[in-house]
């Protein structure tokens, strides 16, 4: 979908990582948490139910596989997968590896404290780690 553009607020708060079959994968600019965002490349979609059934399944496949890979690679106590959209209506799914010792535990990460942006070296390292984990995943659509 060549006309697809992520909401400017998502662009301002995150870095592009890669394109998955359905979603653009981005890294949130808060180094306190391993925090990814998946944005389905669909125009004017704000709710999961607005996607057709195969796209809904693909969204869940991508979020689950990316989340599991990141939890396994980075270690953590819990994986949070959520779609809120109260501030940014464009459909997007947060995938966050949580640790009992993280800055917000056990509360949600949203609105907790001040974000700590990535410096260039740490950003490059995290993007490389994410790409290495995502590269081996079977994310192809399994439509029948």
From TrEMBL:
Its EC number is 2.1.1.-. Gene3D superfamilies: HIT-like. One of its GO terms (molecular function) is methyltransferase activity. GO terms for biological process: methylation. Coiled coil: none annotated. PROSITE patterns: HIT_2 (PS51084). It is an enzyme of class 2 (transferase). The keyword S-adenosyl-L-methionine does not apply. The keyword Methyltransferase applies. Keywords: Methyltransferase, Transferase. Residues 36-105 form the HIT domain. This is HIT family protein. It comes from Halomonas rhizosphaerae. The lineage of its organism: Bacteria, Pseudomonadati, Pseudomonadota, Gammaproteobacteria, Oceanospirillales.
């Amino acid at each position: 979908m060549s006309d697809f553009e992520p909401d400017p607020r998502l662009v301002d708060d995150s870095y592009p990582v890669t394109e998955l079959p359905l979603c653009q994968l981005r890294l949130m600019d808060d180094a306190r948490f391993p925090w990814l965002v998946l944005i389905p490349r669909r125009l004017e979609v704000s709710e999961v139910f607005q996607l057709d059934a195969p796209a809904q399944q693909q969204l869940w496949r991508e979020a689950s596989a990316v989340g599991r890979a990141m939890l396994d690679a980075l270690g953590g106590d819990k994986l949070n997968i959520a779609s809120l959209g109260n501030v940014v209506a464009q459909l997007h799914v947060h995938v966050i590896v949580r640790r009992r010792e993280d800055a917000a535990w056990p509360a949600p990460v949203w609105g907790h404290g001040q974000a700590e942006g990535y410096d260039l070296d740490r950003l490059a390292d995290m993007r490389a780690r994410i790409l290495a984990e995502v590269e081996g995943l079977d994310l192809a659509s399994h439509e029948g």
